[in-house]
Amino acid sequence: MKKSAFILLLALAGCSGGPTDFTKEYREALAGRPGKVFSDPEQGRRAVKVFSELYADLSEGNVRQRVRQTYAPEAWFNDTLATEVGIEAIEKYLLKTAQGSEMIKGTTRDVAVSGADCYVRWTLEFRTKNLAGGKPIVTEGVSQLRFDEQGRIILHQDFWNPASGVYQHLPLLGPAIRYVNGLIAKPE
Fold it and tell me: Among 39, 56, 74, 88, which residue's Cα sits nearest to residue 153?
């Protein structure tokens, strides 16, 4: 198969649409969860600290201990791999994620605030026995957060590249992604 045909096939597969329209879902979540603008910067720092403490050690015990103080009951969550609505769904998803990994550690690198939106730049290191031969995988991203009056997250949207963070390490999909990345880096 010619390189250009292969790239077109991958592009069409990726653009085939799925069961949800992410942009519409995200905009509806933004509109329905305007968030709290903290008049006291210390409130915002505390809210980000609670978020950072949950993701610093995304283990089963830490999720059970911290998730309900971190997220509001009606929170909307999207980490680019899944969308969850409500604390029960978010807790179940994070527990499943923690249980499927040997280690997940997040480090907050920087925080910026714009109105009710808080943007947290982070590094995530994780290890599972099924990816990258059990070696740690490191990825970078940004989370957009909105908080309620109690400082709990009501909107959590991650922006990161799962192709370089996860997908390239999958047994069947990984080689294809690395091949396409090589083509893009070295045009014909």
Answer: 74
CA angle 5, 22, 101 (to 5 degrees): 85
Encode pLDDT of 43-64 as tens digits. Answer: 999 999 999 999 999 999 999 9
What pTM was estimated for this model as a whole?
Answer: 0.78
Single-letter amino acid, residue 42: E
On whether residue 12 sits in a domain, the answer given is no
Amino acid (one-letter) located at 46: R
pLDDT band at 127 (very low <50, low <70, confident <90, very high): confident
Query: Which strand (E) or helix (H) includes residue 70?
Result: helix 60-70
Q: Residue 5 domain-assigned?
A: no
63, part of any domain:
yes
Q: Which domain does 73 fall in, by range?
A: 20-182
User: Where residue 71 sits, what CATH number does that domain have?
Assistant: 3.10.450.50
**pLDDT on residue 13:** 47
Contact in structure between 65 and 147 (CB atoms under 8 Å):
no
Q: Beta strands of 62-152 (E only): which ranges?
A: 71-78, 83-85, 103-114, 117-127, 137-147
Which band of pLDDT confidence, cut at 50, 70 and 90, is reported for residue 86? very high
- Classify residue 3: in a domain, yes or no: no
Total domains in the fold of the chain:
1
Q: Which pair of tokens denotes residue 121?
A: 């730049």
